[in-house]
Write a sequence for this structure.
DNA sequence: TAGATTGTTAATCGATTAACAATC
DNA sequence: TAGATTGTTAATCGATTAACAATC
């Protein structure tokens, strides 16, 4: 933790993984775990686990370790899993539909409330139990429902323009799947870019550099 | 670069992004670029760019900068974009279908050759121009075609078992979308885990911690 | 040549790991 | 109490940034 109390991005990015492993332990009815045991499970050091957790407070107990379900609940609270951030998804192509139907938004603090697509032929089609709406309804929807999270599954060329418009309409958080590095000039907006192409290319590098 | 000549993961993970930005510059007919100009575009430091590129060799020219298309070609070669790694995809649910049809494998050194799914009802259905095959054909396919990359879009519970089997069948690289941290005990195998749920949760943390 | 910009070394910064006193 | 394990400080390691001589 830096002196101003803010948590470094490296720590934050590990939290969902802690949360996931603790969930599995809870499912297996494990009640307590030490940083050493957890470190073996997650393949990191016990030191790092203790450092990470202590950014947020003393969740453990000397001589005992950590209470699994308690710790999980605390991390969940930090992440915001109990929130119900209203969420919209733009772009109902293959990927958009897959994200809409495959991801459990609720368990991650978000509620997917609407899906939009520029192609009028898709209007009325449903994904899960949500109808696909035309993009010209985005504005009215945002004014009425005030969503704060937007999932972007749209082509590169359209991304920045739509994102800027969405910021004006009150969107505060972007989950961006487009082949474009979204960055927002406004303060107080968060962006999570997912570049699947870059991820595959990293794998290709790995495959290309295996020792024979 | 460390003394043994190996490149750190932090550098590798930036390469696809360099490659992407250089591609866009090439499309815009930009011939040369300095580390300073590129740093402004990509929002990193010029120092870092020069350090990163020099892990692989002197691609620039003093007083001039870097030749865009030449540099892109070099990075592409390092990544392996000109390879044709034979690739199979397991799990033709929403996400598997979306990955199969949405991702350009060829431009990233991979050729998607087959799609498998455990559900016999999907057998024969096509995704793009590939038929979905039953999983019991995986073994024969691997013995015949010797694929090296596997994309896993299967449930958590099945992942480790299938991955172990695939390793025996000669798969060397895994692009894993399952809700499971795949790690392979064998040497000389590379894994790229994509945890979309963790990514959304990181965004939720961000949304949850915006200053009001 | 003079100006620009790299390649590369040195300095800084931050993240990870180790160590151990505190304490359950 | 004795043993275990945390919380936390200090040491190490690696990554990023700054600086500048080399050179196109």
């Amino acid at each position: 933790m830096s002196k101003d109390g803010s948590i470094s991005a490296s720590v934050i990015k590990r939290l969902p993984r802690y949360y996931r492993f603790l969930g599995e332990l809870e499912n297996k009815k494990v009640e307590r775990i030490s940083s050493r045991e957890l470190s073996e499970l997650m393949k990191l050091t016990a030191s790092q686990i203790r450092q990470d957790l202590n950014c947020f407070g003393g969740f453990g107990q000397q001589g005992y370790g950590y209470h699994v379900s308690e710790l999980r609940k605390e991390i969940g609270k930090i992440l915001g899993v109990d929130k119900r951030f209203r969420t919209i998804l733009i772009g109902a192509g293959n990927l958009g539909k897959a994200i809409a139907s495959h991801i459990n938004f609720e368990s991650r603090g978000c509620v997917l409330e609407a899906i939009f697509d520029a192609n009028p032929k898709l209007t009325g089609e449903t994904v899960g139990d949500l109808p696909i709406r035309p993009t010209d309804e985005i504005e009215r929807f945002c004014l009425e429902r005030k969503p704060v999270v937007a999932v972007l599954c749209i082509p590169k060329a359209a991304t920045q323009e739509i994102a800027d418009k969405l910021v004006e309409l009150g969107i505060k958080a972007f989950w961006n799947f487009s082949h474009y590095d979204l960055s927002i000039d406004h303060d107080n907006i968060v962006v999570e870019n997912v570049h699947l192409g870059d991820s595959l290319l990293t794998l290709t590098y790995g495959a290309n550099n295996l020792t024979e």
Residues 34-36, 46, 50-51, 53-54, 58, 60-66 of chain B lie near DNA strand C (CB under 10 Å from a C1'). The mean pLDDT of chain B is 95.
